Backbone:
């Protein structure tokens, strides 16, 4: 009996040790996953804070730009063709900043909505982004061929219809490739582009929403350089909008390129869930930061808008000036002494 009682614990001991090892391993794995989740949320929150500050500056700049364009139109009863394009470009960048609130308001978590609502949000963001890029293509065309050689492109209504129609068609094509993951009414975390996009969607968006607009811009710029080189004239540097266009295009290019590369990598590589969310959030913030930076650059580099900003600052300075310094001087009467000589004074 004693031997049996001593043998039973010995047979159970390896099982207990294996069970305890499994429990310890699972507990350590859970703790590591929790720590990774906390670190990912911390990075996303910091990126959200930085973007929120930058987006607020861009939104204020965009509001002032729209106000400045309205004031110019009221004073002159017309806007130059390039000013009309800049006004439309600033308006779409403002819209993108407003649409980015879906990310700012819910990070480090995500907006929860139906698949149909998420698809509508993605379609709207893609349309607004493409409208801004194709407006830059029109700006490059106008700067290259000033005035535009085609009579239809001199009409704002025709250009607006062409830009909006092209952007809507490309966005509808991307929405069809993206497709709903499950049922249209099922709720889930919403992303502008899916956390795990398909290779076909990533490639289509890279080609349609990135390569086509910038290839058209580069082609027009090369044609303009060749045209001005043959005529021995100045290209872009001879106009006020030329440097603004080049700077804004360069900033938008790098922001769009970074997001497109991250999107393609997400489609091809399998990254861990926590780090994938970090890359996705940072890439979205950088993409929307291009809109904020473009608005600030237009305000600071475009001479008429910069002069309007200086005029507003001068008016604010005059309004904020202390009235106690100037009020006493208003009622001061300068002394006036009049000397008259009488006849007696002259005779004496």
Residues:
């Amino acid at each position: 009996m004693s031997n049996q009682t001593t043998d039973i614990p010995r047979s159970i001991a390896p099982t207990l040790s294996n069970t305890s090892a499994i429990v310890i391993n699972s507990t350590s794995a859970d703790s590591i996953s929790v720590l990774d989740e906390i670190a990912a949320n911390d990075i996303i929150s910091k990126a959200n804070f930085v973007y929120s500050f930058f987006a607020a500056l861009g939104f204020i700049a965009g509001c002032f730009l729209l106000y400045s364009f309205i004031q110019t139109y009221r004073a002159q009863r017309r806007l130059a063709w390039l000013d009309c394009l800049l006004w439309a470009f600033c308006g779409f960048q403002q819209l993108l900043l407003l649409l980015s609130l879906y990310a700012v308001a819910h990070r480090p978590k995500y907006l929860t909505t139906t698949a149909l609502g998420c698809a509508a949000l993605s379609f709207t963001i893609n349309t607004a982004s493409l409208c801004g890029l194709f407006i830059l293509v029109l700006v490059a065309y106008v700067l290259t061929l000033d005035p535009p050689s085609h009579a239809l492109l001199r009409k704002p209504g025709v250009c607006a219809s062409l830009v909006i129609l092209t952007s809507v068609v490309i966005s509808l094509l991307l929405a069809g490739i993206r497709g709903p993951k499950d049922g249209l009414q099922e709720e889930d975390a919403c992303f502008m582009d899916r956390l795990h996009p398909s290779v076909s969607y990533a490639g289509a968006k890279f080609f349609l929403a990135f390569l086509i607009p910038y290839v058209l811009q580069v082609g027009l710029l090369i044609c303009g350089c060749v045209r001005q080189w043959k005529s021995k004239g100045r290209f872009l540097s001879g106009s006020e909008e030329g440097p603004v266009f080049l700077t804004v295009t360069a900033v938008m290019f790098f922001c769009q390129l970074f997001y497109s590369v991250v999107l393609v990598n997400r489609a091809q590589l399998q990254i861990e869930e926590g780090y994938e969310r970090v890359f996705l959030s940072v890439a979205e913030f950088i993409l929307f930061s291009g809109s904020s930076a473009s608005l600030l650059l237009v305000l600071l580099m475009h001479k008429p808008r910069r002069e309007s900003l200086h005029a507003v600052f001068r008016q604010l300075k005059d309004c904020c000036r202390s009235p106690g310094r100037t009020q006493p001087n208003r009622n001061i009467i300068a002394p006036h002494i009049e000397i008259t000589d009488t006849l007696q004074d002259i005779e004496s």
The CA atoms of residues 117 and 184 lie 8 Å apart. The mean pLDDT is 78. The two ends are 158 Å apart (CA to CA).
